[in-house]
Specification:
This protein is of the alpha+beta class. It contains 21 helices and 14 strands. The radius of gyration is 32 Å and the shape is globular.
């Protein structure tokens, strides 16, 4: 019921959240509803005997210890602001008043301790009700219009790429596809297309302002989709959407759906000083000027405009890393793919620490660590003693960290300090030689991920006996047959009803733990697996 939603909203914060398991157990009848003093039921019956709201503290202080209305409000303020002297004085009054009314001092102390634990973070009920109403509305929208809801959430965080990345992960978990910007489908902000997919907003591209986007959208709405890059520069107001805007749109992939042109074309050189985009924009200006003159002429015909379209230059296709790096520079994230996609299984199932956890060295003390990522930044310098050092910034799929190279580490591993390299690092956290209580990350090896072999020694697939259908067996057999490799393959068949597990090894069969295999195993509700 909505009353319980309000209470849960109020409880979900430091201090009060300790009571959530008890609240839930009492609501569902797994635990009896009790009151420290029977008369407290008058104000606590709606919350199953647990004090949740500030108003309940105020009402109970008047009921149990004869506080005045003013004193109960002083209690609320003192607890909320942690005014220790005031709290101590009010506690004495609460105990005195409570004993005068015949209540046990030990019980009164217990009640007071409960109040102190939750009240510094407590909500008043009207506040909790407003939050809960919004939570109910947004939960309903998320359940019934998931794509539209997530598009709105992404648009609300348009300028915060960290939150955009987080919410895009949520979209992925919900099964909602998020596509990159598209000149013929994107709107100003994130939007939902006819297939229920979310399309990146054009205004989310760095360097493309709202004015430029609005000129593109207004022309598209008025005269239909753009059929070619020449059609685009012939129609769009190039004063509002200038050369830089068009270039950023192109590099971010907004023209990828238009046939006949690739991102590389826009920055390809033509002549000694120009690139294709320079020539393209000049063509657009000439065409629009001629069109305006023809429209204003007594004898001109707009359809008679003859300005030769420039030829597309020859291009050198970018590597995946270069294309994605340029995309990330403008969008703020890897969107069409990730440079580490080919190694996703290694990062998810073999590496044992995230990059953002490396700063918590106390928890990693003594452990053999395996981690890695793609190098996104390299800084070099000299220490106060004149010794060279290097700071390497690396990113994996959802975290980032910095790897300092000093002394021998610089000598041994600085050759890996190049942007775009994908590396795998083995290290150990150990006490530092340079200060008591300090911990160092001691690197034992750095390797290019592409050079590392044998990381996945074995995979064990667990199958339920009741789920062993012919279709499942055929699909697994096909995947195994089509993915020969070097990893040992094991199976466990379990019978839940008899509590039996039968392990066996697929003798003579070694497989490659490939992305298609992992995708299939992850998508199956009945199959589980472990690696190494």
């Amino acid at each position: 019921k909505f009353e319980d939603l309000i209470a849960m909203n109020a409880l979900y914060r430091p201090g009060p959240m300790d009571y959530i398991p008890q609240f839930v157990a009492r609501k569902h009848g797994r635990e009896p509803i009790t009151y420290d003093i029977p008369v407290m039921e008058r104000y606590l019956s709606d919350t199953y005997g647990i004090t949740v709201y500030q108003e309940q503290v105020m009402l109970l202080s008047r009921l149990l210890a004869d506080f005045t209305r003013g004193q109960s409000d002083e209690l609320r303020k003192a607890m909320g602001k942690k005014l220790i002297d005031k709290m101590n004085a009010l506690k004495e009054k609460f105990l005195t008043g409570g004993k005068k009314n015949g209540h046990d001092e030990k019980t009164l102390n217990k009640i007071w301790a409960d109040w102190e634990k939750f009240a510094s973070y407590a909500f008043n009920k009207s506040h909790a009700t407003c939050y809960s109403w919004v939570a109910y509305q947004t939960a309903w929208l998320k359940a019934n219009y998931p794509s539209e809801y997530m598009a709105a959430v992404l648009s609300r965080n348009l300028s915060d790429i960290t939150n955009v990345s987080k919410f895009m992960d949520e979209c992925k978990a919900m099964g909602i596809r998020v596509f990159g910007p598209d000149i013929n489908e994107s709107n100003l902000k994130f939007s939902v297309n006819k297939n229920g997919d979310i399309r990146f907003g054009l205004a989310a591209i760095k360097g493309v302002g709202e004015g430029a986007v609005e000129s593109v959208i207004s022309e598209r709405n008025a005269n239909g989709p753009f059929t070619s890059i020449f059609d685009f520069v012939e129609r769009v107001n190039l004063l509002s959407c200038n050369k830089k805007n068009v270039e950023f749109l192109a590099i971010a992939g907004a023209f990828d759906s238009i046939p006949g042109i690739q991102r590389e074309h826009f920055v390809a050189p033509i002549g000694n000083h120009d690139t294709f985009i320079d020539v393209l924009i000049r063509y657009g200006y000439k065409y629009q000027t001629a069109k305006a003159e023809a429209a204003n002429s007594l004898f001109g015909n707009v359809s008679d405009i003859e300005i030769v379209q420039p030829n597309l230059p020859k291009i050198q296709v970018w590597s995946d890393i270069e294309r994605l790096s340029r995309e990330k520079e403008l969008i703020g994230m890897y969107l069409s793919a990730h440079p580490l996609d080919a190694y996703a299984t290694i990062f998810k199932y073999v590496c044992n620490v995230r990059l953002d956890a490396l700063d918590e060295r106390e928890a990693l003390l003594g452990k053999e660590l395996l981690f890695g990522g793609i190098i996104t930044d390299v800084r070099e310098g000299l220490s106060k003693r004149g010794q060279p050092y290097m700071i390497i910034r690396i990113e994996d799929f959802d975290s980032a960290g910095e790897l300092p190279l000093f002394g021998d580490d610089f000598i041994n591993f600085s050759k890996y300090g190049r942007q775009g390299l994908s590396i795998l690092i083995r290290a150990k956290v150990q006490p530092s030689r340079f200060g008591a209580g300090k911990l160092d990350l001691k690197i034992s090896s750095i390797q290019l991920i592409s050079d590392v072999t044998g990381l996945i020694e074995k995979i064990r697939i667990t199958l339920p006996l009741r789920g062993l259908t012919k279709q499942l067996i055929d699909e697994l057999s096909c995947l195994i047959k089509n993915n020969p490799g070097d990893s040992l393959l094991y199976f466990d068949v379990i019978d839940g009803e008899r509590n039996l597990r039968v392990p066996f090894r697929a003798n003579g069969t070694k497989i490659a733990v490939s992305k298609p295999l992992i995708d299939y195993l992850e998508a199956s509700e009945d199959i589980t697996f472990t690696i190494n």
